[in-house]
Specification:
It is an enzyme of class 2 (transferase). α4 runs parallel beside α9 and α9 packs antiparallel against α10. The chain is α/β, with parallel strands linked by helices. The protein has a domain of 184 residues: Alpha/beta knot.
Length: 352
C-alpha cells in the first residue's frame, strides 16, 4: 500500500509548522539575544578598539619619526638607548652561546584562569620579553605548555607580531617534555630550598598562573608530584618587606635577569620590587659585599672624626700650656714643680 494517502498526525504537523516559522522583522520587534545590553555594548566597544588599534600605532610611529627628525635637525641625540637592530643582535647572540642561562615560563594552566586573568598573563609575558630584550645579558627564554588554539594562544594572537618574538615557543609541549627533568628547578614561594646562585646547567621554571591566590600551592604541588626540584628566591635573606613576599611572574623573571647581569641579590630585589612593598635591605653583619664596604667606610669616617677631635684636643692643650708659660714667666716668685716654671726661673736668673 502506498503511504501517500495516509494523513500524518496533527501533533507532527504542528511541530513541522513551528520549525518553519519565520521570525518577523516588523518595526518594534527585537529578536531574543543570549547577551544583555551591557555585554553587547562591551562587544561593540571591543570591536571598535581593535579596529582603531592599528591606526593608533601608525600615528604613534609617525610621531616618533617626527621627533627623531626634529632632534637630528637640532643636533641632539636621536635615541637614548640602543636601537632595535642592536637589541635584535643581542638576542641572536644568545642562541649562539654554548651554555646560556635558560628560563622557562610555564603556560600550561590557561584552564584555571578567566578571560581577564588570561589577558593579564599574556601582558606579563609581553613584559618579560621586553625585559629580556633590553637586558645587557639576555637569557634564553622559553614559553611552554601553550595549547594550539587554546585560551592563551587566542589571546596571544591579539598582539601583532608575536610570532616574530625572539624566543622559543613550545606548542602542545610542557617543560617536562621539552627538557631533562634533572635540569629543571621550579621556582615557588612555598619551597624550603633557597636559591643562592644561578647555574647555566639548570633550567629555571616560573609558573605563568594569574589567579589572585585562588589556587594556592598549585605550582609547588605540581612540581613535587612530577619529582622536580623546587626553590624560592632569597627575599627574606636579603630584604625586609612590609607585605607578603609574593611576586608576579615578570618580577621573578626580572630579578633573575638582573642577577645574571652580575648584580647582587639585594640590588636586584630592591630595583625590581615596587615601592608599595616597602622593601629595605636587611641589616645583618656580613650580609653582602656592599654592606661590608659600607661598614668599612663608616668605620673610616668614625676614625677620621675621632682623629680630628683628638687633634683639636691636642691643639687646645698646647694653647693652654703656652698661655700658662707666659703667665709663669711674668711672675718669678711662684714656686711650682712644673718644667715650664723651672725653665722660666732659669731664664730669669740668667737675665739678672
Amino acid at each position: 500500500m502506498e503511504n501517500s494517502g495516509i494523513e500524518q498526525p496533527a501533533e507532527k504537523k504542528l511541530k513541522e509548522d513551528v520549525s518553519t516559522v519565520v521570525i518577523p522583522s516588523a518595526p518594534g520587534f527585537t529578536p531574543p539575544t543570549p547577551n544583555s545590553k551591557n555585554q553587547l555594548k562591551k562587544q561593540k566597544k571591543l570591536e571598535q578598539q581593535l579596529l582603531q588599534r592599528k591606526e593608533k600605532r601608525k600615528q604613534e610611529k609617525e610621531r616618533q619619526k617626527q621627533k627623531r627628525r626634529e632632534a637630528a635637525e637640532k643636533g641632539l641625540p636621536v635615541r637614548n638607548g640602543p636601537s632595535r637592530k642592536d637589541l635584535k643582535r643581542r638576542l641572536e647572540k644568545v642562541g649562539e652561546q654554548e651554555n646560556p642561562l635558560r628560563i622557562v615560563i610555564d603556560l600550561d594552566c590557561d584552564d584555571l584562569m578567566n578571560e581577564r586573568d588570561m589577558a593579564k598573563c599574556v601582558k606579563q609575558c609581553l613584559r618579560i620579553y621586553t625585559i629580556n630584550r633590553r637586558s645587557e645579558c639576555p637569557v634564553q627564554l622559553h614559553f611552554t605548555g601553550i595549547k594550539t588554539e587554546g585560551n592563551i594562544h587566542r589571546v596571544l594572537k591579539k598582539n601583532d607580531g608575536w610570532e616574530n618574538w625572539h624566543l622559543k615557543y613550545h606548542f602542545d609541549e610542557t617543560h617536562l617534555e621539552a627538557f631533562d627533568n634533572k635540569e629543571l628547578i621550579y621556582l615557588t614561594s612555598e619551597s624550603d630550598t633557597v636559591l643562592d646562585s644561578l647555574d647555566a646547567q639548570n633550567v629555571y621554571v616560573i609558573g605563568g598562573l594569574v589567579d589572585h591566590n585562588h589556587h594556592k600551592n598549585y605550582c609547588h604541588d605540581r612540581a613535587t608530584k612530577a619529582g622536580l626540584r623546587t626553590a624560592r628566591l632569597p627575599l627574606g635573606e636579603y630584604v625586609d618587606m612590609k607585605t607578603r613576599a609574593v611576586l608576579t611572574t615578570f618580577h621573578v623573571f626580572e630579578i633573575l635577569v638582573r642577577v645574571a647581569e652580575g648584580k647582587s641579590w639585594t640590588d636586584a630585589i630592591l630595583q625590581t620590587i615596587p615601592p608599595r612593598k616597602g622593601a629595605k635591605p636587611k641589616q645583618i653583619a656580613g650580609n653582602t659585599a656592599e654592606n661590608k664596604e659600607e661598614n668599612v667606610n663608616d668605620v673610616g669616617n668614625h676614625n677620621t672624626a675621632g682623629d680630628t677631635e683628638d687633634s683639636n684636643q691636642t691643639k687646645d692643650t698646647e694653647t693652654e700650656n703656652s698661655n700658662s708659660d707666659k703667665v709663669e714667666s711674668s711672675d718669678p716668685n711662684c714656686n711650682n714643680a712644673n718644667d715650664g716654671q723651672e725653665s722660666s726661673k732659669k731664664e730669669f736668673i740668667d737675665e739678672r
